[in-house]
Amino acid sequence: MAVSTVCTTQSLNSTCSISTPEKTHLGFHQNQVVFYRRTSKRGGGSCVITCSVGDSQTVVIGLAADSGCGKSTFMRRLTSVFGGAAEPPKGGNPDSNTLISDMTTVICLDDYHSLDRTGRKEKGVTALDPRANDFDLMYEQVKALKSGIAVDKPIYNHVTGLLDPPELIKPPKILVIEGLHPMFDERVRDLLDFSIYLDISNEVKFAWKIQRDMAERGHSLESIKASIESRKPDFDAYIDPQKQYADAVIEVLPTELIPDDNEGKVLRVRLIMKEGVRHFSPVYLFDEGSTISWIPCGRKLTCSYPGIKFHYGPDTYFGKEVSILEMDGQFDRLDELIYVESHLSKLSTKFYGEVTQQMLKHADFPGSNNGTGLFQTIVGLKIRDLYEQITSSKTAAPLEATKA
Amino acid sequence: MTMATLSSLNLATPRMTANLPDSNKVNTVKAPYLNQNRPWKMVTHLGSRRMRAMVPVKAAPDSLSEKVEQSIKEAQEACSNDPASGECVAAWDEVEELSAAASHARDRMKDNDPLENYCKDNPETDECKTYDN
């Protein structure tokens, strides 16, 4: 959405008027300001009308992960980096999946299910199957929001399993689409400015789901296992392939520090960052592009069992150049966290200790003492950096146009 | 809990309204014949003058837990015939979806302590100071 300058030849009788139309249903962009300037010359004075479309171009982030894999935790960390807490829209459907804060709006892609729960049962398809999702509608609405047009988005009610009446979504500064298929459809993929995939290994997924579901009546180890196993074919066929398109992949694996560990408390987390992505500079340890193995515990820092181990290096991932930063172990104390942060580079923090501060702010979130929380926070800061770069490059362009 | 009769008496003295219990957090008039399956469909008494804002009620977590239990049973039945069939897979997917919804509901319930919410933002106030020896 570029700046347009229009010159008219007729002078206007009226004095200057500034109008800010917000008639989104007509397709006008929000924050559109039209200036009318009256010239003092008589007869045939030219009047310049400039339409500057402020921040109507929304930055779109895609986040993909299987159900129960930490998307909500990631969302909360991300919105906290921008400031403010994201909440469901006030006064609307209480079972809405949307979260809104000052800067961000998070849309759950389950809202684009074309089949509700009974429909899927009849056809014998899972929610993972692309046949259960309306990708055309998803593409149209994300495209509209990206260009600054509000949309009526359907609501998928997870409690009843039905499709509820739509809710109005106004274009935010940052739009996050999270769900099972943000990168599945090629058109939607092209709209994303940045995409993240949470890749949880089977053992860890099993451990997390046990933690989540054992409190529920009716669930047992067998039922949880059966649920994961039976969804696996669809997951491998439709969801897993999306990781090759992601700009950043957070891979969660069982730890290598404790032999035969099956509790899943200590985790090995790898942040796989694609090289050459616009506005995104990967984090590195000590020396960019080299391979480093680092154990911070020693004379300056004492850690408790099992300690912390870092690894950084370049690699290839599905044929693309990537940099991988890996952390195995957990943080027990604040000074371990700040020590690690002070040795990482290109974190996109605004001040020293910002990562630590963000982690402490949400110390009750799952993963706050290991690599999942750390890397989610870092990715959040990277997204903030990306947003600022995109918006500053956009404001630079209109200035040049008006000079001409 | 049922203050339905109140609506027909709302032309009565204001003293009646003062007795409204605080437990009536939801500002709607509930009829005794409320449809238990669709708690958001509030039925107001005809002629009720007290038009408060209708706030739809969130689904109660108990019904969610029951749904989870029910869906697990159904999935086990569906899979006893043919573990690879579409019905079996779809049934377990439903179990997964309901378990996720139940877990989110549980998290939301946890966040509803007013003191905790206040102290999160104001830890230095007298009510919220903690002393660790």
Automatic annotation (TrEMBL), chain A:
Q: Which organism is it from?
A: Hibiscus syriacus
What InterPro entries does this protein map onto? P-loop_NTPase, PRK, PRK/URK
Answer whether the UniProt record assigns the keyword Cell inner membrane to this protein: no
Instruction: Name the NCBIfam families on file.
Output: PRK07429.1
Q: Where in the cell is it found?
A: Plastid, Chloroplast
* Predominant location category: plastid
Q: What is this protein called?
A: Phosphoribulokinase
Q: Which UniProt keywords apply?
A: ATP-binding, Calvin cycle, Chloroplast, Disulfide bond, Kinase, Nucleotide-binding, Photosynthesis, Plastid, Transferase, Transit peptide
Pfam families in UniProt: PRK
Q: What enzyme category does the UniProt record give?
A: transferase
Q: Which Gene3D superfamilies match?
A: P-loop containing nucleotide triphosphate hydrolases (3.40.50.300)
Recorded metabolic or biological pathway in which this protein acts:
Carbohydrate biosynthesis; Calvin cycle
- Care to name a GO molecular-function term for this sequence? protein homodimerization activity
Q: Name one GO cellular component term.
A: chloroplast
Q: Which GO terms describe its biological process?
A: reductive pentose-phosphate cycle
The catalytic activity of this protein is classed by the Enzyme Commission as 2.7.1.19
Q: Reaction catalysed? A: D-ribulose 5-phosphate + ATP = D-ribulose 1,5-bisphosphate + ADP + H(+)
Q: Which family does it belong to?
A: Belongs to the phosphoribulokinase family.
Task: Give start and end of each Phosphoribulokinase/uridine kinase domain.
Answer: 60-258
UniProtKB/TrEMBL annotation, chain B:
Record's Pfam families? CP12
Region of interest (Disordered), ranges: 103-133
Instruction: List, as start-end ranges, the regions of compositional bias called Basic and acidic residues.
Output: 104-133
InterPro entries the UniProt entry points to = CP12-like (IPR039314), CP12_dom (IPR003823)
List UniProt keywords, sorted A-Z: Disulfide bond
Keyword field contains Oxidoreductase:
no
- Disulfide bond residue pairs: 79-88, 119-128
Name of the molecule in the record = Calvin cycle protein CP12-2
Q: What is the lineage of its organism?
A: Eukaryota, Viridiplantae, Streptophyta, Embryophyta, Tracheophyta
